[in-house]
Amino acid sequence: MTNASQTDPLLGRLIDGRYQVRSRIARGGMATVYLATDLRLERRVALKVMHSHLADDTNFKTRFVQEARSTARLAHPNVVNVFDQGQDDDMAYLVMEYLPGITLRDLLRDYGKLTPEQTIDIMESVLAGLAAAHRAGIVHRDLKPENVLLADDGRIKLGDFGLARAAANATGTGQALLGTIAYLSPELVTRGIADTRSDIYAIGIMIYEMLTGEQPFQGEQPMQIAYQHANDSVPKPSLKNPLVPPQLDDLVLWATSRDPEERPADARALLEKLYEVERTIHGAQPDGELDATRVISPTANDTQATTVLAPAAAALVPSYAAAATTQFAGPAAQVRSEATATDAVGKLASVSRHRRSRGWWLFAALMLVAGLASGTGWYFGAGPGALVAVPSLREKTAQDAASALQNVDLVAKQSPVYSCEVPEGHVAGARPSAGRLVHKGSTVTLDVSRGHQPNTIPPLGGLSLEAAKQAITGAKSLVGTTVDNQFSSKVANGAVISATKATDDQDITGGGAFTQCDTVNLVVSVGPVPDVVGKPLAEAQAELAKAKLSFGQGQQKYDDNVPKGSVIAQAPANSGPVRPGDTILLDVSNGPQLFNVPDVTGMTPADAKQALEKAGFTVTVPDTFSGLPIGVFADGMIVVSKETPDANSKQRKGTNISLTLGLKG
């Protein structure tokens, strides 16, 4: 398989003189997203680059720029931030907030389906971000699990506003059918119309998928799925997953109603109902019906509000039909009719007076209701019942975090914790987490770091590697990612030679005080360095290579005891411990050194002996000559006539030379 780094020309490129492209994150139908470094601000960013084959398409380029403008209008903790937008040559790009983590699609792919509690937690953040978009007049139009980002630090954000439009323009017809087919609303499929309620439909499909692990409408062709969206109603999730509570069933059916008028008006309305469902599931309130919410929050064209008020109004208005009825049936009947008419007039007058008195009570009741509504609106809009987002507090000092909470009318409560990543006195986390919506005056618990937790580590020297690792992890500390191997003649193969702290190289081989977050680096013995002295060079080199050691040429020396071509001595190339891969220098023997035997023919025995001994040889002089002691011929000028070994031959130093004597002639 060809590596992406070998085929993507943008990797390593500097965009617009500022953004250094590092690696590719994802590729979509409209653009590719890269991890880049903003060299000016020294931070990691996500760089979204439009495909080159779309650069000449004005519509695509307009949508691409529209994403930057749409997202830049939003400032919400649950929406991915856009930092910059520009063009480098013919390449349009966006610079966005980089969030290491996964998408909701990745989560569903790994776990199949989620629990109702997990679904509610994720959807609260998604709807909070979408509510901010709807409040700003923006319709997303491409909501799907791929566009919900789950960051490693717990943040949940909504991204990819590439198809977003202003709400006022999104309801027009004649536009191309855009967005993923599995999440398109019926009005988008049939008429090409999209508004905030189209986003709500997509949210309903996503909730169904999260609860059941599959989409409600499936087919081999996109047209089959589109037909089902236009003509079929989404079933209850509990038909696929019996563990889904009825409140979430009702929520999904409300959000995915085929008639847009019967859905929530926007994400804020659905979010408020989701909070109510959450409280109901946890037993905070009795079960309720979603129809009540629809009546309380009617859309602009909804007449149900009048329908609801009609029974109460009817109770306050008397019926005049019986009092106003007159009949004429002859004179007698006319007399009765007049009497009846007189009674009717009296009754009408009485009813009129009663109606006026009731009118004052009705007016007072209406004023009371208006006051209650105004007070309720204040309570939930600006008063203690208003919802605010928990700010991001991680790694702030405890004092700064408390001030940040006070600024949004929240109360801070500190809870000390040990932390491996966050310095002492700084916030390691918050509960509820950043981005969650809570009521004003709520308490947010700050987990304030106490630094690393003190610990004691046992002696590690001499233990096997596995035993040392178990001792370290048992003390809730970390083993270094790289274990250093070293040759040792004193420690057995596979046993720990030494252990040090990764932070300051402190020797802790014998154990001692430690902290749970520190990392331990281990040095493990691989046995002694092979002894190759006296072995032929080729054999010595093979043995060192087998031990994963390199070999280098040392000195070549004469040696009387080591054969030529064999190793005289070995030594590490560098001072210090020997590790696999190090070089061992080998001194090789040239064999014994030979010297010329000087020619001493014609010398006296004494002079010959002196010359040979000076050359490094030992000398044997005969005691007799022709059966007589040599001393007898001292005055006769006895001379050397022959020597053994022969003169001018090469012999080792110390070789014994025997002289042959004769008379000077």
Automatic annotation (TrEMBL):
Segments passing through the bilayer: 360-381
Catalytic activity annotation: L-threonyl-[protein] + ATP = O-phospho-L-threonyl-[protein] + ADP + H(+); L-seryl-[protein] + ATP = O-phospho-L-seryl-[protein] + ADP + H(+)
EC number(s) stated in the UniProt entry for this protein: 2.7.11.1
Domain of life: Bacteria
One example GO MF annotation: kinase activity
First-level EC class: transferase
Domain PASTA: 523-590, 591-663
Keyword terms: ATP-binding, Kinase, Membrane, Nucleotide-binding, Serine/threonine-protein kinase, Transferase, Transmembrane, Transmembrane helix
Protein kinase domain mapped to chain residues: 19-275
Listed name of the protein: non-specific serine/threonine protein kinase
Native source species: Gryllotalpicola kribbensis
Lineage per the UniProt record: Bacteria, Bacillati, Actinomycetota, Actinomycetes, Micrococcales
